[in-house]
Automatic annotation (TrEMBL):
<comment type="similarity">
    <text>Belongs to the actin family.</text>
</comment>
<protein>
    <submittedName>
        <fullName>11885_t:CDS:1</fullName>
    </submittedName>
</protein>
<feature type="region of interest" description="Disordered">
    <location>
        <begin position="60"/>
        <end position="95"/>
    </location>
</feature>
<dbReference type="InterPro" id="IPR004000">
    <property type="entry name" value="Actin"/>
</dbReference>
<dbReference type="Pfam" id="PF00022">
    <property type="entry name" value="Actin"/>
</dbReference>
<feature type="compositionally biased region" description="Polar residues">
    <location>
        <begin position="76"/>
        <end position="91"/>
    </location>
</feature>
<dbReference type="InterPro" id="IPR043129">
    <property type="entry name" value="ATPase_NBD"/>
</dbReference>
Length: 436
């Protein structure tokens, strides 16, 4: 096996329900874009921020279903001739549907209108459709990152959430070696990558994504899966809740003069005008004093602290889930978890979030002044290391930063990842020999 060990060939793919971050080349992990949005991510960070959705013409799908099914596994120029791996994945059709991804998606949607269907391969952190996810990865690798499949010299680190199981790991392994012809693969846990990005080996990761919020304890580089908690409330729920607040506010509707949609609510939510008050009662007081839309902007993230606001009964609030996750860990390590909380994800950037969370979490700390060895004294949040001067104010990029650092350290070591020799010998089950 031979491939270039130059860092400009290392690929990192961080999978999310709303966006997928991807980069080729990790030589400078401190580079940071200066203008927000898709364009800067593409041009200055040498990275791609791709919506986690695919589209195709409906007639293509109907034609495919009506044609004879010719079963193949992968093209002969990619698979090894005597590969032991051919029975792991379901066989695929030789005529694959034509998916449209990335920047061309909205253009195609407008062009084909009602004859075009958009679907989401990942919902609330769970894979919904492998064929669509494969098409999205293919688009990222071959088009966005311009990798030549026949002569692929780019090892890939794929970071995944806690909810992806070992069967998913096996499928990822087969796809990247057989379909994308990758010379090497590293499958990384996103919470662990976040801890690495924040320069710590132990802590509690609170990741507020688009489809779900994950609370994951990490102790000495070991993910405590048994203690991890998932709250099915996140970015998409904040969007929907904010829209419902706008629609129910007669004064706003009168002044706006039109019916706002979900995109409108999301656009406002993602501006700097939204914030979380440290005192939740402040919202109701402001509502009594004035009926303006800015009081609504302070209620957007309240479902995370009170799930019943969106009729989610029987679901833990964020402070409750954090307390439970820590309580399920070893007694002598709980203190350091309370003092090493890492908050990441797009929604974590909202103004006032840490202050509010700290206020809520204090209720779970001991009020006694006679602290025992294992009693928690205070809540502390980790920050990105100061030497990442361009990134230290962007905790939402902590996981991507940790993944890039891990790629830099792992790929030069032949034993630090799954290589083609390993795969050809063991097949997708190689993940078990590598400790996954």
């Amino acid at each position: 096996m031979h491939f270039s060990l130059k860092e400009e060939n290392y690929v990192v793919i961080e999978n999310g329900s709303f966006k997928i971050k991807a980069i080729k080349g990790v030589s400078d992990t401190n580079r940071f874009p200066s203008v927000p949005g898709y364009v800067w991510f593409r041009t200055l960070f040498s990275a791609r921020l791709i919506p986690t959705k695919v589209g195709r013409k409906i007639e293509d799908q109907e034609n495919q279903n009506s044609e004879a099914q010719i079963e193949v596994i992968s093209s002969p120029d990619i698979s090894e001739p005597n590969s032991p791996n051919s029975s792991t994945l379901p066989k695929r059709n030789s005529k694959e549907p034509k998916y449209i991804c990335g920047a061309q998606l909205e253009e195609a949607k407008e062009k084909f209108a009602d004859n075009f269907q958009i679907t989401y391969p990942i919902k609330r952190g769970v894979i919904q459709n492998w064929e669509e996810l494969e098409a999205l990865w293919r688009h990222i690798l071959l088009k966005e990152l311009n990798i030549k499949r026949a002569r692929n010299e780019c090892p890939v680190l794929v970071s995944v959430p806690n909810s992806w199981k070992r069967d998913d790991y096996e499928r990822i392994t087969q796809l990247f070696f057989e379909t994308f012809n990758a010379p090497g693969l590293y499958i990384a846990n996103q919470a662990l990558m976040t801890m690495y990005g924040f320069g710590s080996l132990t802590g509690l990761v609170v990741d507020i994504g688009y489809g779900k919020t994950e609370i994951t304890p990490v102790i000495d580089c070991s993910v405590q899966y048994h203690a991890a908690q998932v709250i099915p409330i996140a970015g998409q729920d904040f969007d929907e809740y904010f829209l419902s607040l706008l629609l129910s506010d007669s004064k706003f509707m009168e002044e706006y003069g039109d019916t706002p949609d979900l995109e409108f609510a999301r656009a406002i939510k993602e501006t700097d005008i939204c914030e979380i008050p440290e005192d939740p009662y402040q919202i109701d007081n402001e509502k009594l004093e004035r009926m303006e839309v800015d009081y609504l902007e302070k209620k957007v993230y309240e479902p995370l602290f009170n799930p019943q606001l969106i009729n989610r009964h029987g679901i833990l609030s964020l402070p409750e889930a954090i307390s439970l996750a820590i309580s399920l860990c070893e007694t002598d390590r709980r203190n350091i978890l309370w003092e090493s909380i890492t908050v990441t994800g797009g929604s974590s950037l909202v103004k006032g979030f840490k202050e509010r969370l700290e206020t809520e979490l204090r209720l779970y700390l001991s009020a006694s002044e006679n602290y025992g060895d294992f009693q928690v004294k205070e809540v502390k949040f980790l920050k990105l290391p100061e030497y990442f001067t361009n990134l230290r104010e962007r905790p939402d990029l902590g996981g991507f930063l940790g993944s890039s650092i891990t790629a830099k350290l792992s790929f030069p070591d032949p034993k630090g990842f799954i290589n083609k020799v390993d795969y050809n010998e063991h097949g997708p089950s190689v993940i078990h020999t590598k400790g996954y």
